[in-house]
Amino acid sequence: MFDFSIVTTWFDSLLRETLGLGDFLSILIECVLVGVFILAAYAMLAIVLIFMERKVCAYFQCRLGPMRVGPWGVFQVFADVLKMLQKEIFFVDKADKLLYLVAPFLVLIASVGTFSFMPWNKGAGILDFNVGIFLLTAISSIGVVGVFLAGWGSNNKYSVVSAMRGAVQMISYEMSLCLCLITAVVLTGTMQISGIVEAQSGPFGWLVFQGHIPAIIAFIVFLVAGNAEANRGPFDLPEAESELTAGYHTEYSGMGFGFFYLAEYLNMFVIAGVATTVFLGGWMPIHIGVAGVDSFMDCIPGIVWFLGKAFLLVWVLLWIRWSFPRLRIDQILKLEWKYLMPLSLINLVLMTVIVALGWYIK
Amino acid sequence: MGGRCIMANLIMFIILAVVILGSAVMCVTTTRIMRAATFMLFVLFGVAGLYFLLDYTYLGAAQISVYAGGVTMIYVFAIQLVGKRTLQGLVERVKTSRAVCGALVALVSFAVVALVLLKNEFVSKACCSADGGEVPMEVIGQSLLGSEKYQYVLPFEFISVFLLACIIGGIVVSRKEEEK
């Protein structure tokens, strides 16, 4: 298995020893490089995801999707981005301009912040704190404030109503999201992202195999709650076009809207990525205990495993979005508070019992 | 990081201090209540940043999740419940006598804090103990839920019961009375 930390250690020693830079300068250069890498990966993935959404949605609806710009329509997203960059950014009369400007950035910060936790490869996790998963959920909760401020800053009653709905929905579903992550942490025994991935090595080591019934329940609940947390269909009620126009970003134009759009798609990827990391082993290849198969699986690089699993989950989320009708707000809240949250609480107890009695696959 | 790159730590501290102080001043001087809530959010972020600077990652994460994600949202919802008409009338002019009083109180509290810090040699002690680096999650968990000496299971349980009582109280207050 290729260990990416070889590259980072080499680069670090290049700066420190070969070039003779001090601690401060070399850390600064590394931080800037990593930041550029995160933003570049973020933008690249957004383009891929938006194109994927349009194509997958088209095929589910028996259409072709974008076909005109470039072969098979691959340059459609670039054209969209160009259009969006040219648009004028204007303000709403009597709106709070500061909050109007700050809101998209808060949403984007939450999205980029959680995105930086993804373990891309062995030794290539960017943020790897001891409190990993906890910090990830903490940062994702900033997005709620952004959504709300966007609605308030627009000075539009429809925006406020849909921002209220969005915030209520996100706060509610955060509960079962965190409970599912805690269920996983009970089994892995660590909150550090790299530790969680390490704990899933070994034959049938992925958490869904290791923790069997409770892990599978937690995985499914996590996907449902994550879909709601990312405000995507069938929970995309904040954007119900027929009643609330375009939701809390009705009044945004140009890149203000672009940021919300970006954050929505990347949140979907982050949900898929976290589910991959926690339940499907992150970059860890599947091992079945037969030496030949295991070493063959190890030949495939970790990033391919990670992206493959994450995009598979993204595809499942798209499938769900284009197959189910949209829920009403009371149905959404009922689903969370009456079914998902009690289920995840019971599931947490079940997982604790199974770990205490040692009934999981070691 | 320990004591290796004092320079970087100092620069980060200055940036955070400017953010915290600037936002705090803006928070109390602005006349719009939603802006005040937003600036308070920035102050809380800055404080979380200070915790990260000190390698207290758990405290920093709790700060972001509880204060930034929770308390600010509760304020925002409470502001929404008040209604726009009431909020627009909430403009208060700063009087000179009040400003003087405020300055006096600030001066006295600054003197008290400075005295305590200097008297207890708190700073030098904190510098010595901060070199331990990040406290592992296991240690924090054990001391939060352990029942031995210097462990905190009783306060923890007490706070959870207290919060439960608050939640039930909130439901009772907000519950719609059924038609009789």
From TrEMBL, chain A:
Query: What's the Enzyme Commission number for this chain?
Result: 7.1.1.-
In terms of InterPro entries, this protein maps to: NADH_UbQ_OxRdtase_su1/FPO, NADH_UbQ_OxRdtase_su1_CS
The protein's enzyme class: translocase
Q: Which GO terms describe its molecular function?
A: oxidoreductase activity
Reactions the enzyme catalyzes: a quinone + NADH + 5 H(+)(in) = a quinol + NAD(+) + 4 H(+)(out)
Give the stretches traversing the membrane.
24-51, 98-120, 132-152, 173-197, 203-225, 265-288, 300-320, 340-361
Member of which family?
Belongs to the complex I subunit 1 family.
- Quaternary context: NDH-1 is composed of 14 different subunits. Subunits NuoA, H, J, K, L, M, N constitute the membrane sector of the complex.
Q: What is this protein called?
A: NADH-quinone oxidoreductase subunit H
